[in-house]
Design goal:
Strand order of the largest sheet: 1-2-7-4
Number of domains: 1
CATH superfamily: Cytochrome P450
Bound molecules: protoporphyrin IX containing FE
Organism: Maconellicoccus hirsutus (Pink hibiscus mealybug)
CATH topology: Cytochrome p450
Mean pLDDT: 89
Subcellular location: Endoplasmic reticulum membrane; Microsome membrane
Oligomer: single chain
InterPro entries: Cyt_P450 (IPR001128), Cyt_P450_CS (IPR017972), Cyt_P450_E_grp-I (IPR002401), Cyt_P450_sf (IPR036396), Insect_CytP450_Detox (IPR050476)
Shape: globular
Helix content: 40-55%
CATH class: Mainly Alpha
Structural class: alpha+beta
Pfam family, one: p450
Protein name: Cytochrome P450 6PW3
Length: 493
């Protein structure tokens, strides 16, 4: 036996170590400030986005941008509000894709506006923008209002026996009802019953099963793998449920020649309108694409809105003076309007708007915005180039908790939205910014504000012994959510 047999045993680990080090020195080699990392650093897996991106943001303190590693791959974080505006708005042509690796032409539901790249995204966004105008929101106002009334009834009957309420549970049921009603034209009775097939399917999408996490991870580390592995991102049952649901609703509407003021109707009209549905660039709003957009409205709208309402309710219970001030505003508006809530009224309540804005600041619903660089880009004012394919992150939760823009960031202070200077404005990104910002923000504000108006008009809220704070945020979710219940005491006013 050769005396050098041991050599590979020593050399191989050294080579592997060197290759890993070389890979993880990606940002160092490029002369860009960065956060040190290694393959065993699994912070991205263990922490919630709201905490994770704020931590990286703080680690890059003093730099306008910097590199980090997440999901075993190099990413770039842009910290400076001026540069962020360039990425999101001015130089949008370089960053029009989100780089969402869930997009898959073989999986109809993933072909939605959030995940779609390039031309498909542009086509969808252009066609669907008119769906979200104030005019269209007004049509849906009554549907959402009905849900807010049901929410009050459900809370009212709960507190007959027990004044302690898990607000997260109730407002999730409310949000499911709102979206199922406005996106699919369906009554699910989830507020009253607490259980519905729709709600069960919704929880399946978000329950973060290990298999879904593995698929998501492998796709984000190596997008090519999806062609080889062919494992669907959305489970078969969920996928079939939502595809059939939209098909049934569409067929029923067409067959009965009936119509309703909801998203599915707007999409049916869009499909029927030859000028809109099929234009020169041969974009056709197929049935599958239509289902994918309804599914997206549901996915994008239900957790985001319910968590926003839950956080606001918690803060109102924790800050009784703010709660009283908001109740006074609601009461005086109701008196002025003969106890009738209208779309205009909801949007003209200044203090309510500040309370919602502050909740969205303190609890960033998305810890980060994501973009992918689609062609080589020079960062303005520097000699640094971002390569095509680089994933770019905008650290919303970091900006929202930066003392420089929001003094005393831990404090819930709606008054900070009184006179917003431009610097403050640029650092505030709850709905993103630019052509790819949240298309549903008007709808979201309408449903969040209506729930708050109805609940505060009818109940006084207080913290109770079961209220858990600080919150423990759930890891690996796109939407910031709390792992546990949010208990509050409700008393009839
Ligand atoms: C409080 C509730 C909500 C919050 C905080 C929120 C936040 C966001 C954020 C941060 C983005 C990414 C923006 C960017 O990358 O610049 C986004 C995208 C999106 N949101 Fe929302 N959202 C909410 C509710 C809704 C609702 C109710 C809908 C639909 C009914 C909706 C539909 C969408 C869609 C379709 C996109 C993708 C837009 C595109 O890529 O063109 N969102 N949302």
């Amino acid at each position: 036996m050769s005396e050098f047999m041991w050599l590979p045993l020593v050399l191989l680990p050294m080579i592997i170590f060197w290759l890993i080090k070389y890979y993880y020195d990606y940002w160092k080699r490029r002369g860009i400030p960065y956060v040190e990392s290694h393959p065993l650093d699994l912070d991205w897996y263990k922490s919630a986005g709201i905490d994770y991106y704020a931590k990286i943001y703080r680690q890059l303190e003093g730099h306008k941008f910097g590199g980090f590693f997440s999901r075993f791959a190099p990413k770039l974080m842009i910290r400076d509000p001026e540069l962020i505006k360039n990425v999101l708005i001015k130089d949008f042509d370089y960053f029009h894709d989100r780089g969402d690796t869930t997009f898959d032409e073989n999986e109809p539901l993933t072909m939605n506006m959030f995940s779609a790249p390039g031309t498909l995204w542009r086509n969808l966004r252009t066609r669907l923008t008119p769906t979200f105008t104030s005019g269209k929101m007004k049509y849906m106002f009554n549907l959402v209002q009905e849900c807010a009334e049901e929410l009050v009834q459900a809370v009212d009957s709960h507190i007959q026996n027990d004044t302690t309420i898990d607000v997260k549970n109730y407002v999730t049921r409310y949000s499911i009802e709102v979206i199922s009603s406005c996106a699919f034209g369906l009554k699910t009775y989830s507020i009253k019953d607490g259980h519905s097939r729709f709600a069960a399917m919704a929880s399946k999408i978000f329950e973060g099963k290990l298999s879904a996490r593995i698929v998501y991870l492998t796709r984000s580390v190596c997008p090519k793998l999806k062609e080889i592995l062919r494992v669907p991102f959305i489970g078969k049952t969920t996928s079939e449920f939502f595809l059939k649901l939209t098909n049934d609703v569409v067929e029923h509407r067409k067959a009965s020649n009936s119509s309703r003021n909801d998203f599915v109707q707007i999409l049916i009209n869009l499909q029927d309108d030859k000028k809109m549905g099929t234009i020169e660039d041969e974009f056709t709003l197929t049935d599958d694409l239509m289902s994918a957009q309804c599914f997206l409205f549901f996915v994008a709208g239900y957790d985001t809105s319910s968590m926003t309402i839950s956080f606001a309710l918690y803060e109102l219970a924790a800050n009784i003076e703010i709660q009283k001030k908001l109740q006074n505003e609601i009461d005086s508006f109701m008196e002025e309007h003969d106890d009738q809530v209208s779309y205009e009224m909801v949007h003209n309540m200044p203090y309510l708007h500040k309370v919602v804005s502050e909740s969205l600041r303190k609890y960033s619903i998305n810890g980060t915005l994501m973009r992918v660089c689609v062609k080589k880009y020079q960062i303005p004012g520097t000699e640094v180039y971002i390569d095509k394919g680089t994933e770019v992150f905008i650290p919303v939760s970091g900006l929202h908790t930066d003392e420089r823009y929001f003094p005393d960031p831990e404090r819930f202070l709606p008054e900070r939205f009184e006179d917003r200077n431009p610097e403050f404005r640029d650092a505030y990104l709850p709905f993103g910014a630019g052509p790819r910002s949240c298309i549903g923000f008007r709808f979201a504000l309408m449903s969040v504000k209506l729930a708050l108006i109805y609940l505060l008009r009818n109940f006084n809220l207080e913290l109770c012994t079961e209220t858990r704070y600080p919150f423990e945020f759930a890891p690996l979710k796109i939407v910031t959510s709390v792992k546990h219940e949010i208990f509050l005491t409700f008393n009839k006013r």
